[in-house]
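Consider today's protein:

***
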Amino acid sequence: MGLLAEEFERRLRTLQEAGEFVDPRVAQIERLKTKVAELKERLAQRDETIAELATFKELAVSRLAAQHDEIVRLREQAAALGNVRRLLAARPGTAPYGSCS
């Protein structure tokens, strides 16, 4: 028998003499229970993050819709007043005044 096996047998006998019965299945069950608890916690955290992101997305979309409505309203108002002059479109490849380009 190898040195490792002898050490295992010695520890097993010591535990049995002390009244503790070591069952590898029980140890595996405990490890798996711990792992399941960790995974449940990770899953709960992920679900919380998803809920927060969904709320953020809903808020962002509603803000974008409100901004779009305001832009449409302002364009209609400007067209009705007729006192707003359109600026010429910039030529391709030219930078606006004051830019660092």
In short: The CA atoms of residues 78 and 85 lie 9 Å apart. The two ends are 79 Å apart (CA to CA).
